[in-house]
Amino acid sequence: MTSFDCKNKFKPLTEGTYLKNAEEYKRLYKQSIEDPNAFWYEKAQEFLTWDKSFTTISSGTLKQGNVKYFEDGYLNVYQNCVLRHKEKKPNDVALIYEADDPEDARTITWLELSEQVQLYARVLKHLGVKKGDVVTIYMSTSPEAVYAMLACSYVGAIHSVIFGGFSSEAIKARVLDSKSRFIVTQNLARRRGKLVPMKATVDRAIGGLDFIRSVLVDERVSNMKDQFEMKSNRDIDLKPFVSEFQKGGKYENENADLQAMSMNAEDPLFLLYTSGSTGKPKALIHTTGGYLLNAALTHKTVFDIREGDRYGCMADLGWITGHTYIVYAPLVNGTTTLLFESTPDYPRITRYWEVIDKWGLTQFYTSPTAVRFVMTYGTEPLKDFSLKSLRVIGSVGEPIGVEAWNWYFKNVGKSKCYLVDTYWMTESGAIMISAIPGVTTLKRGSATLPLFGINPQLLLNGDNPQNQELNLEKKSKKQFLEIAENSQSGILTIKGHWPSITRTILGNHKRYLDTYLNPYPGYFLTGDSAYRDMDGLYFIKGRIDDVLNVSAHRFGTSELESAITLHPNTVEVAVVGMPHKIKGEAIFVFCVLKDKRVDEKKTKNELKVLLQKTISKVATPEHIVLVDSLPKTRSGKIMRRILKKIVTKNYEISTYGDLSTLLNPDSVKQIVQNVKKLF
Ligand code: ATP
Ligand code: MG
C-alpha cells in the first residue's frame, strides 16, 4: 500500500480547523483513552447545552453490559439541534432539500425548522404520544421526515425510522417488534421520477394490527387522493392538520407554549434496525446525551466542519449514517445539511456533481457502492463541473478498495480534498476509525486511526495458523488475546466503552450481550476483522465470518475483492468461500463486468492471473461467475450470506434467512441459475 504525503497536496488549512495538528490529535487521543472522564467532561460542555448538569460522567462496564454516560444530566434535543442556532442565525439555511426532481429543491432556515418541529410536536402531543412511545417514520429523505424525527424527542418519544423503500412485510415486522402505535408516512413518494405508494404500503403492513392509534400522512405528492384510502379515526392528513395548529387554526391555542422535553441523558433517543448483511436485522437503542455528544464531536473532527460550511451526506435517512451524519451531528453543530432524496443517476448521471456545484458543498459523504456506480460511467460526466467548493470527501459502509479510492480521490477530490474512509456501524452510533483532514495520515484503502475514546484491539483468532506462534508466546506469558504488534491481522474489537455505544437490542438484552459483549469480556466485538500495518494504521478486511481459510492461508474478502477490481473491466466483485475437500475452503468469485461483450473465458483468466499476481498463487479462484448484479442491502452492502448459501448448492431462496432488507431479489435468481450451470 502506498502512503500519501498529503501535506502539500491539500488546500491550505485556514482558521477554524478543530484540531490543529497531529500532535494535538495524539495528546487528546491519549487523554481520551487514559483519562476518559476528564476528556468527555470537557467535550460535553463544549458541544452540548445542558438543562441540568451531570455529576457522573460514565458508569457501568462492558462486562456487565450496563454502560451509562452523564446519567444524572438532563438536556433537550430541540434546544441543542435547533433552538440555539435559530437564536443565533434564524435566517441562515439549516436544511437543503435536494428533492428527487431537482426542480423541487428548496431550503429551510433555522427559523422555519424550529417552527415546523414545534408544530409537529404539538400534533404528536394532541394525538396522545407520550414519553417512551415508539413512533415509526416511513418516509423519503425529506424535511418532513426530519421534522417528525425531531418532534419525537420534543415530546420524549423514540423514533423508529424505516427505510422508505421497504416492503409492507418489513414494516409490519418492525412495527410489531417495536410495538409502535404511531406512524408518520407520506401519501406517495417520488423515486427516480416514479410514484411510490407509501400510504398504501403502510396500510398493507398494519392491516389487522389493532393497536395502531394514528397514521399521519404527509402529502408529499399533490392531488393523489384516489391512490389510497384514509381510515377514519386513525388516519390524519398531516398538512391541513398542522395548519390547524398554526395561527388562526382550530387548535391554535392547544399546546401553544409546549416546551421541548428535557431528557435524561440515558433516555432512548431512537431505535434503529441494522442493515441485515449478516442476518436478521437487530433493533438497536441509542440514548440521548452520549450519542449526541459523540455524533457532534466526530462530525466536527472528521469532516473538518467550520462555520458557513454546506455539508452533504448522500445517505438515506433510514440508516445510521442518515441519523447521525445527516440529522443529529450537523444539527448539533449548527451546520447546513443536505437531504438527498434521489439517486446518483436521476435524472442524469451527473446528478451528484450538479448537486455539489449547485449548493457549493464543502463536504461530500457517500458509500463505496455509489462511487463504484458512478465510476462505471467514467470521467466524462464530470467534465462540466468544477467541484471546487469541496474540502473533504468521505466514504462509509464497506471497504472502499484501492481502485475506487483512487478514482474518488482523483476525480472528485481532484487530488486536493482529504478522503476520509470512515469505519463504523449502527452499534457504534458514530465513526470509530477515520483519518482527520490535515491532521492525521492518509493511506489509500485504510480507515487509518481511531477517533477519541475508541481503543481498537486486534485479538488473536485461535484457529489462525499464521498467528500460532504469536498465540503460543502470548499464552505462555498468560496474556490475553490482544495483538500488540503491528503488521498483524486479527479480530477487530474495541476495548472499553464510549459515549455513543448502543445500550441494548430492543427487548433482547441477552442477544445484545451474546452478540457484542460476552464473546470477549471487556471488549466490544465489531464482527469485522482488520489488519494493522507497520505504521499502526487500520485496514478493514471484511466480516470475521467472511475471512477465507484457503489451504491454511487466511484472506479477507476485502483484499481479494480489491485486487480483482483492479481489472479495468470489473465494476463490482463479491468473494465467498466454498467448502473444499483438500483446501478447506476455495475462493468463489462473483463479478459484474463493465463491458459484457467480451470474451468471457479470456476475462476470467485475466482475473485469475490478477489474483495470483497481486495476492498469491494460493488465492487462485476455484470458480468465477459473471453476473449482472450482486445481492445488496438497501444500504448498499453486498449480502455475502446469500452467496455463501448458493455456493453450497443450496438453491432454495426461501431458506436464505431474513431478506427484508434485500434491494434486488431478481439478482438472486440469476445468480442461482448461473451457479447451477457450473455443477
Ligand atoms: P447486520 O449487522 O444487520 O448484519 P450491517 O453490519 O451491514 O448489518 P451496518 O451497521 O449498517 O449493518 O454496517 C456496519 C458494517 O459495515 C461494519 O460492521 C462493517 O462491516 C461495514 N463498514 C462500515 N463502514 C466501513 C468502512 N469504512 N470500511 C469497511 N467496512 C465498513
Ligand atoms: Mg453489523
From TrEMBL:
> Tell me, what's a Pfam family for it?
ACAS_N
Per UniProt, residues of the AMP-dependent synthetase/ligase domain are: 85-459
Domain AMP-binding enzyme C-terminal residues, every copy: 559-637
Q: Gene3D superfamilies given for it?
A: 3.30.300.30, N-terminal domain of ligase-like (3.40.50.12780)
Top-rank taxon:
Eukaryota
Has the keyword Ion transport been applied to this entry?
no
Catalytic reactions of this protein: acetate + ATP + CoA = acetyl-CoA + AMP + diphosphate
All copies of domain Acetyl-coenzyme A synthetase N-terminal, residue ranges? 25-81
InterPro entries reported for this sequence? Ac_CoA_lig, ACAS_N, AMP-bd_C, AMP-bd_C_sf, AMP-binding_CS, AMP-dep_synth/lig_dom, ANL_N_sf
Documented EC number(s): 6.2.1.1
**Which family does the UniProt entry place this protein in?**
Belongs to the ATP-dependent AMP-binding enzyme family.
Query: Could you identify this protein by its name?
Result: Acetyl-coenzyme A synthetase
Native source organism of the sequence: Anaeramoeba flamelloides
